[in-house]
TrEMBL record:
Protein name per its UniProtKB record: Dihydrolipoyl dehydrogenase
Cysteine disulfide links: 49-54
Subcellular location, record wording: Cytoplasm
Cofactors named for this entry: FAD
Major site of localization recorded for this protein: cytoplasm
Pfam families assigned to the protein according to its UniProt record, in alphabetical order: Pyr_redox_2, Pyr_redox_dim
Organism: Roseateles toxinivorans
Uppermost EC category: oxidoreductase
Residues reported to bind NAD(+): 187-194, 210, 278
Keywords from the named record: Cytoplasm, FAD, Flavoprotein, NAD, Nucleotide-binding, Oxidoreductase, Redox-active center
């Protein structure tokens, strides 16, 4: 006999497991299906983010940053080291332990919130009598509401399939067993820059090949320009406007043939190649055709503004639908859908979703960029404050970058905040709160910020909007 649930979530990544927990909190009999597994074959909920994305990459970024500080910055503090070395195997083991802690944490949260968990791949079987039948292995589950949260997969470069030995997706990039002498990265997006930064810090010679003519084109132009300058200074080689013609892989490594921005033929020989050219919605094995689930031309599930699909009581959230492929966006959609099922008014504001690149310096932003405001013909004021004038940044020994605030020229409402510098990922939260509550630059300028703190730079940027900074 099939087990029946009020809400069944397919996928246990950030969107899925959060949706399941919120649905259970709202009183629904809830189940979650997830197929990620550990090396031993056990369940590993958390999706790409926890297993081969956000969490492990941050663990490696932290390890590599410690190594770089020990080798290049500790002496400034009077700390002298000799014979510095990196144990890559131990670094990877720590990363795996961090991942496992998150996997186990999700399983604990399911138990705590009475969410039934099924380990395996979920696929639609049929729709009948107002219920959906979903198969997990040999088991058949029935549910009134289904939330699809199956995430995304790395997009492969045509003619260069991932082998996760030489040609690597984000998965393989997190499992490189030793520091490569030469590392190639195709794509200068978040994943490419973060993984390139990890191995560059550990000693690899890293070259990034980007097809776009502009670096970080989605980022505010001022921030992108500053980032390019600092990354170049660090030793990260970035080539823009390239057109790749061929990728060859053998036991000796990988050779990339391409035309540079001027059209001249070039060759790049590397030990490992990370391909990070975007991600595609994952509907493999979902068997949506069994119930008539509609996909768009990109293979993503079609949803409306409330994450409803074309089928009654079937919802979809996260990377498998439109919008930015960000874990926190998926979480917000998951919560909103659970609340909508309960008759509440779930809320997701796409205009206040923060973006972060965890390089060094970190890059974070929310809202409109200067180039977007110019293109839209919006009259605005800009205020900027450098970290080199911030006391806490000086004490940290990390004074690169700045905070930029953009506000409406007439109303002073904050339209965008862009940060490049230390702990930008944490500082951006204040800007998100401010924009969510329609704050003005003057509001931030009038709020007392602790001294000394990096957040004072946000206040100073707000003051700069009115051309009245106090410390620069």
């Amino acid at each position: 006999m099939s087990k029946q649930f009020d809400v069944l979530v397919i996928g246990g990544g950030p969107g899925g497991y959060i949706a399941a927990i919120r649905a259970a909190q709202l009183g629904f009999n809830t189940a979650c299906i997830d197929e990620w597994k550990t090396a031993a074959g056990g369940p590993a909920p958390g999706g790409t983010c926890t297993n081969v994305g956000c969490i492990p990459s941050k663990a490696l970024l932290q390890s590599s940053e410690h190594f770089e500080h020990a080798g290049h910055h500790f002496a400034d503090h009077g700390i002298n080291l000799s014979n510095l070395s990196i144990d890559v195997a131990k670094m990877l083991a720590r990363k795996d332990q961090v991942v496992k802690q998150n996997n186990d944490g999700i399983l604990y949260l399911f138990k705590k919130n009475k969410v039934s968990f099924f380990h395996g791949r979920g696929s639609f079987a049929a729709a009948k009598d107002g219920l959906y039948e979903v198969k997990v292995g040999e088991e058949s589950l029935l549910a009134k509401h289904v939330i699809v949260a199956t995430g995304s997969n790395a997009r492969a470069l045509p003619g260069a399939a991932f082998d996760e030995e030489n040609i690597l997706s984000n998965d393989g990039a997190l499992r490189i067993g030793g520091v490569p002498k030469k590392l190639g990265v195709i794509g200068s997006g978040v994943i490419g820059l973060e993984m390139g930064s990890v191995w560059r810090r550990l000693g690899a010679e890293v070259t990034v090949l980007e097809a776009m003519p502009a670096f970080l084109s989605a980022v505010d132009e001022g921030v992108a320009k500053e980032a390019a300058k600092l990354f170049k200074k660090q030793g990260l080689k970035i080539e823009l406007g390239v057109k790749i013609s061929e990728v060859k892989s053998d036991k000796g490594g990988v050779t990339v043939s391409y035309a540079d921005a001027k059209g001249a033929a070039q060759t790049l020989a590397v030990d490992k190649l990370i391909v990070s050219i975007g991600r595609v919605a994952n509907t493999i094995g979902l068997n949506g055709e069994a119930v008539g689930l509609k996909l768009d031309e990109r293979g993503a599930i079609v949803v409306d503004d409330e994450c409803k699909t074309n089928l009654p009581n079937v919802w979809a959230v996260g990377d498998v639908v439109r919008g930015p492929m960000l874990a926190h966006k998926a979480e917000e959609e998951g919560v909103a859908v659970a609340e909508r099922i309960a008759g509440q008014h779930g809320h997701v504001n796409f205009n206040t979703i923060p973006w972060v690149i965890y390089t060094s310096p970190e890059i974070a932003w929310v809202g409109k960029t200067e180039q977007q405001l110019k293109a839209e013909g919006v009259a605005y004021k800009a205020g900027q404050f450098p970290f080199m004038a911030n006391g806490r940044a000086r004490a940290l020994g990390d004074t690169n970058g700045f905070v930029k605030m953009l506000a409406d020229a007439k109303t002073d409402e904050i339209l965008g905040v862009h940060i490049i510098g230390p702990f930008a990922s944490e500082l951006i939260a204040e800007a998100v709160v401010a924009m969510e509550f329609k704050a003005s630059a003057e509001d931030i300028a009038r709020i007392c910020h602790a001294h000394p703190s990096l957040s004072e730079s946000t206040k100073e940027a707000a003051l700069a909007v009115d051309k009245r900074t106090l410390n620069f």
